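Late entry, written up from scratch paper. The run itself happened at the end of the previous shift, but nothing got recorded in the book at the time, so transcribing now.
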Amino acid sequence: GAACSPGSTVPQPCSTGTFSAAPRTVSCDPCVAGEYQDDEGGTECKPWTLGGYCPTGSTIAKPCAEGSFGNESGLMSQGGCHDCPPGSLCSVGARHPTPCATGTYSNASGASACTGCAAGTYQEGEGQTTCKPCDLGGYCVAGVVGAGEDAFDMARETRSDGAWKIGIAVSHMRRSLLPSAQSSHTEPSGA
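Output as recorded:
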């Protein structure tokens, strides 16, 4: 982990990004691409695992950029990282793509975020590239997971007059889920 240049009186520890594996070395060697050394006096370089890369002489591993992932060790540049496939997202340093959640989609490669389904559309599956149009006889608010007469799980509470009202965290809607004590129903405004 040290080198002695000609005329030196004391060995000098190898700097970060370099190493010396043998005694009586004149100079330290830079870490090869795909490896790094973040400590002084290193006797070997450390291989970078997943989610990033290391150019030659790296003192620290660099993460794959958002919209890409690194699922192999020893990558030497951002070019070794893979574009995130459609239907998924990749944050900085991702090791694998993350499928888009229900109610969202991604139709392009290299996405760092998924897009919520627009009003009038929905998506109940993960890892999708499009949203589906709402069924006839039903309606969807932006970002819903299900639609139509079979939708479920509406947040609701009872008002003092016995009618139901929509609460916060509405994720699924169905017109027939709004009964009152008098068997009439209340529609949400703007639907």
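The chain is about 0% helix and 20% strand.
(Scratch paper discarded after transcription.)
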